Automatic annotation (TrEMBL):
Protein name as annotated: Metallopeptidase
Keywords, sorted A to Z: Signal
Source organism (scientific name): Rhizobium daejeonense
Signal peptide (from-to): 1-20
Pfam name, any one: DUF4344
Length: 279
């Protein structure tokens, strides 16, 4: 895995330890970034973690309740996680959706090798396909709210109209399947949350950022208390040695790997560098 630039890593460390103020401004200057870019990097990392966790929670819902899936599960879960976030009708989660789409666009741009047969055989769609699918969900849910974001991508007007019907159909289908599993108000239980120490001191600062943002609690409270799960499901953030996040139906555990947070920071770090060169 490529290394995160020392400048961004150090500046983010100061942001967490000292907060906004003169020290943050100094760290941003030394990293050749603006304070706004530092905050954008932190938010981008957190928001992509949120989308990833909701994606894995989609796998959890399918597994725990035996929900039928027609088609490729990864595509279905991308749609389900998008619907759960968008229907929450919370501005911060709408921003998370935009960052998630940008995350897949940046991942596609950062690809260092040409596509090969293995990429087309993968259980996931191509990064750029996933990005546009998320955008389709966004404009399908609220074309006006996400208009500027879609315009920035030159997302075709005729496609936006199609997305409205696609989103409504997907939402109705998923919610009809989930209806019988919804918990009565006040009777749902949060899931078990655990942030394990990172196995690398350089990564611990990012683990602390995720904990400070309560990314696991967002899933625990937002989904765990909404549905009738049996006790024992765990949400864990930890070092894994690989860039990943996954739901394990045998252990009934969602795992978010800190390495994935570092990857998202590397993506936006690269974006800032390219933007600087172009300007």
């Amino acid at each position: 895995m490529r290394r995160l630039s020392i400048g961004l890593a150090a500046a983010l460390m100061v942001t967490v330890v000292a907060g906004a103020g003169p020290l943050q401004a100094k760290a941003a200057k030394e990293a050749k970034l603006t304070e706004k870019q530092l905050e954008e990097a932190r938010t981008f990392m957190v928001n992509n973690a949120i989308f990833t966790l909701f994606h894995e929670a989609g796998h959890m819902l399918i597994s725990e309740f035996g929900l039928p899936v027609l088609g490729r599960e990864e595509d279905a879960v991308d749609a389900l996680s998008s619907i759960l976030l968008l229907e929450a009708d919370v501005e911060e989660l709408d921003v998370a959706m935009q960052d998630a789409a940008d995350g897949w666009f940046l991942s596609d741009e950062a690809r260092e090798e040409d596509l090969n047969e293995t990429d087309f055989l993968d259980t996931h769609g191509l990064d750029r396909q996933r990005a546009y699918a998320i955008v389709c969900m966004m404009v399908g849910a609220d074309a006006k709210y996400f208009e500027n974001f879609a315009d920035s991508l030159d997302f075709p007007r005729e496609r936006r109209e199609e997305c409205e019907g696609e989103y409504q159909h997907a939402k109705d289908s998923w919610f009809s399947l989930l209806a019988q599993h919804q918990a009565e108000e006040g009777k749902g239980k949060p899931l078990n949350v655990s942030y394990e120490p990172a196995d690398n001191p350089d990564v611990q600062i990012f683990a602390d950022m995720l904990k400070e943002a309560s990314v696991l609690e967002l899933v625990s409270e937002g989904i765990g208390t909404s549905y009738k799960f049996d006790d024992g499901i765990k949400l864990t953030a930890k070092s894994c040695g690989v860039v990943n996040a996954f739901w394990n139906p045998q252990t009934r555990e969602i795992t978010y790997c800190y390495e994935l947070a570092v990857q998202h920071l590397m993506l936006i770090d690269g974006y800032f560098k390219r933007e600087k060169v172009q300007n």
